Amino acid sequence: MDEVLVASDVRRAYGDTVALDGVSLSVTAGEVLALVGPNGAGKTTLVRALTGTTDASGTVELFGVPPEAVDRDRIGLLPQSFDPHERLTARELVSYYAGLYDDTRDVDRVLDDVGLSDTAATTYENLSGGQQRRTCVATALVNDPDLLVLDEPTTGIDPAGRRDLWALLEGLADRGVTILVTTHYMEEAQQLADRVGLLADGRLAALDSPERLIGEHGGDSRLLVDGTFDDSAVSAIDYPAEMRVLDERLVVYGIRPESIGSVVEALELAGLDYDSLTWKEPDLEDVYLELTGTAVGRPGGERAAATAGDSQ
Ligand SMILES: Nc1ncnc2c1ncn2[C@@H]1O[C@H](COP(=O)(O)OP(=O)(O)OP(=O)(O)O)[C@@H](O)[C@H]1O
């Protein structure tokens, strides 16, 4: 397989803060690789290190050469912080970026691709947050890149707009564009990516296909009992299943849907109040929690308090 991006032992610190603690990965041609992690996990620093926009130790090669030597026509980069000129229209902005490259796509086609045909003549300051982000995505697409690097492209975009953007990225991937994307939306990574890198505290906790990650680390199906539980709930409830309290939620493992009623009975016998019940198969969120002890879906990535043993 052709490797478009190869990184080895990438490290970066800001003073005493270790942002990247030895990350190695590779991305093959046509692959969609998603880097997932909560705020502060190191996603932006990694994207910047991989694209040569911040100093880092270790080695990075894009298309076989260091980032600074790559033909920039081959790369489309959407940084996390990107503040274009507010008084320019979406079309003017994308045209401006088109002017930086030798070979570009038709600007109106690109605007159409990101769903902005109707608002192409609106100034950036008058676009909604989601339309602004889509304009930014368009600037990264205008040079028809072989490698597209997008740092949180869907942040601020409503669910329908996010799905449209996923469809666009899937279409690009089908055409052979290699995509490296960061997100803190687990379901986005699970749906979009061929492989997912779970980033925690500047390290890759795991890197594999969503299916394999879930198969190896996701554990059993489970019943989530929402409420304000503490560790005492686990000993109070008399039920023959593994249980843990994670972020004040009681999790009962290995439960099939037909057993939910018996769990409810056990909760009532133990006098435990709860708000709601959710049954689910394991997903990437559970994998992240299992491997790092942190819930990625929660702002700031709060630590989850595991009880009743530290592993499933
Ligand atoms: N310019 C900087 N100066 C000092 N510390 C920084 C700087 N940039 C990042 N950091 C720190 O490095 C760590 C990783 O930050 P980074 O922005 O890469 O994470 P992230 O996963 O992209 O987070 P977010 O989702 O919030 O953007 C954090 O602890 C952050 O505070």
TrEMBL record:
Pfam families: ABC_tran. It comes from Haloarcula salina. Keywords: ATP-binding, Nucleotide-binding, Transport. Belongs to the ABC transporter superfamily. InterPro entries: AAA+_ATPase, ABC_transporter-like_ATP-bd, ABC_transporter_ATP-binding, P-loop_NTPase. Residues 5-226 form the ABC transporter domain. This is ABC transporter ATP-binding protein. PROSITE patterns: ABC_TRANSPORTER_2. GO terms for molecular function: ATP binding; ATP hydrolysis activity. CDD domains: ABC_DR_subfamily_A.
